[in-house]
Write a sequence for this structure.
């Protein structure tokens, strides 16, 4: 029996999972939960559409099937309902800013309010399902991020780790919404975290892949936008499509300015939220009387543009009215996503570019290639995330032919747009000016420490190592003060030498010089201590040497990575 226990200790010593490995496991769990939340919201929208309109085959088709009075009224009624729900969420939150997942990752402490998030999701559902010109992906990702926040609370993780959990969930949400696991991880890394450090990118990728696997089991997987195979002329087609990057770089700032103006106009109006969102919906309804294509996020329109089914005059007609409808919906304050509508604007730009090129050189370029590259270029110009944009278009179309021309077009679009307008469509996620200052050890504190009492036997010490599976356990005296630590390696050597389990553990095992920090120790000094300490954890003591908990090296690295990424 004793030999088996010794072997177990040796096995623990060699196979003990690191903090990094445990983080990856949690990232996978979060990915599955986030995927389920994302799919659940999407299926809920389909259910609402079937209950209200009797069908759920796409909002544009629903709009085309309605009479003009119903087409006019539906978005307005949905806007009023969404406004009441949004006002309710603000009362619940005490008029504080709503818990946006990007703010929780970058500016906040990784906590998202459950009740407020759910009410805002219902508000978004009312806007989207009634025909609002906005995307459903925003609230889908928000609900996914809520799963990460709840896991962080459950694990009682410190702030940097809670932020990472929310980021993992958001990546999983994007991966599920667009069937794009790589782009989902890079979306959060490039746009939100603004860092490709492996400490954050690794868990993001694991979470996105886990979400993709879960989604494949729940609803199956297929390309978001189906494109027919095509072969581009090497070099020539890439240079032609690069002009789309120039077009996107020049026009994206105007697109973002339009949305800013719409927000400003509605902010100046002191009407209640139900009235504001109702007016936004009424504008969409009025536009849809002549252009039903403005309903929804634009998915079906993009699909038709990819196959070149529209003449250029119809593309211009729909583009102008879609921009007005989108400005009215987002400006009124409706909760929803802007990602897919931005793809639609890029798709229209690509379709118009293709039509112009056909007039000069007929048959030289397939419409699907121009539309796909236009989507990526305009996305890069609007989000200032060229890498994410290239991979997003590739994964959504599952067509490698768009990758090379998209790379050049997206980079050109990014640099031109950034030169004309520094703020992207996700500008709020790019600043830490209002972030809480995390400078002391207590900001990273974990409380589930592995401890033993000074007056104990080798058997109790062995049991502690078997229970906690750490490399060191902390030793406390009768008053709860920290006296040092004992190494698993030293214990196994003692037992191998034939020491009796029922005997008191010898004082020679105690490392009284074990590194420790105070709860008020600045973060930079904690990092210096870790530089001299080979382990993953450091005990945290108060001014009277009582053990408060411990801090991990990974949490500290995550915090410094966040600071450096925005410096």
């Amino acid at each position: 029996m004793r030999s088996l226990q010794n072997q177990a200790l040796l096995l623990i010593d060699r196979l003990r999972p690191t903090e990094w490995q445990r983080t990856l496991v949690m990232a996978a769990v979060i990915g599955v939960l986030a995927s389920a939340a994302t799919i659940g919201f999407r299926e809920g929208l389909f259910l609402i559409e079937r209950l209200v309109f009797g069908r759920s085959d796409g909002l544009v088709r629903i709009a085309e099937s309605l009479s003009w009075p119903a087409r006019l009224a539906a978005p307005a009624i949905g806007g009023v309902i969404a406004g009441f729900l949004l006002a309710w969420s603000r009362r619940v939150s005490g008029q504080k800013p709503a818990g946006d997942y990007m703010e929780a990752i970058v500016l906040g402490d990784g906590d998202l309010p459950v009740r407020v998030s759910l009410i805002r999701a219902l508000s978004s559902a009312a806007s989207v399902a009634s025909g609002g010109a906005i995307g459903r992906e925003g609230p889908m990702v928000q609900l996914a991020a809520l799963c990460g926040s709840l896991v962080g609370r459950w694990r009682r993780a410190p702030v940097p780790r809670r932020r990472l959990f929310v980021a993992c969930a958001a990546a999983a949400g994007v991966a599920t919404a667009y069937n794009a696991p790589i782009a989902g991880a890079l979306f959060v890394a490039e746009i939100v975290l603004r860092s490709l450090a492996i400490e954050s990118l690794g868990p993001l990728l694991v979470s996105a892949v886990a979400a993709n696997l879960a989604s494949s089991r729940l609803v199956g997987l297929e390309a978001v936008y189906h494109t027919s195979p095509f072969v581009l002329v090497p070099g020539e087609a890439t240079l032609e499509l690069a002009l789309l990057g120039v077009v996107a770089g020049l026009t994206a700032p105007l697109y973002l300015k339009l949305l800013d103006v719409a927000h400003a106009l509605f902010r100046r109006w002191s009407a209640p939220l139900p009235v504001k969102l109702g007016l936004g919906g009424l504008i969409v309804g009025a536009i849809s009387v002549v252009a039903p294509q403005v309903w929804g996020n634009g998915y079906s329109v993009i699909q038709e543009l990819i196959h070149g089914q529209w003449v250029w005059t119809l593309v211009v007609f729909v583009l102008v009215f879609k921009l007005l409808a989108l400005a009215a919906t987002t400006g009124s304050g409706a909760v929803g996503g802007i990602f897919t509508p931005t793809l639609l604007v890029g798709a229209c730009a690509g379709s118009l570019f293709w039509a112009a090129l056909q007039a000069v050189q007929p048959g030289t370029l397939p419409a699907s290639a121009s539309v796909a590259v236009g989507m990526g270029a305009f996305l890069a110009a609007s989000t200032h995330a060229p890498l994410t944009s290239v991979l997003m278009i590739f994964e959504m179309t599952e067509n490698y032919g768009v990758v090379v021309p998209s790379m050049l077009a997206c980079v050109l679009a990014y640099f031109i747009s950034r030169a004309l307008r520094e703020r992207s469509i996700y500008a709020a996620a790019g600043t830490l000016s209002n972030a809480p200052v995390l400078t002391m050890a207590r900001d990273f504190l974990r409380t589930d420490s592995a401890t033993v009492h000074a007056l104990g036997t080798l058997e109790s010490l062995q049991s502690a190592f078997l229970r906690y599976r750490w490399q060191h356990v902390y030793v406390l005296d009768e008053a709860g003060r920290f006296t040092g630590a004992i190494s698993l390696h030293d214990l196994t050597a003692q037992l191998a030498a034939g020491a009796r389990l029922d005997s008191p553990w010898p004082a020679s095992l105690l490392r009284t010089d074990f590194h420790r920090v105070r709860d008020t120790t600045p973060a930079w000094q904690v990092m210096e201590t870790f530089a001299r300490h080979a382990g993953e954890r450091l005990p945290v003591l108060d001014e009277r040497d009582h053990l408060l908990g411990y801090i991990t090296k990974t949490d500290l690295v995550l915090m410094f990575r966040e600071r450096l990424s925005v410096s």
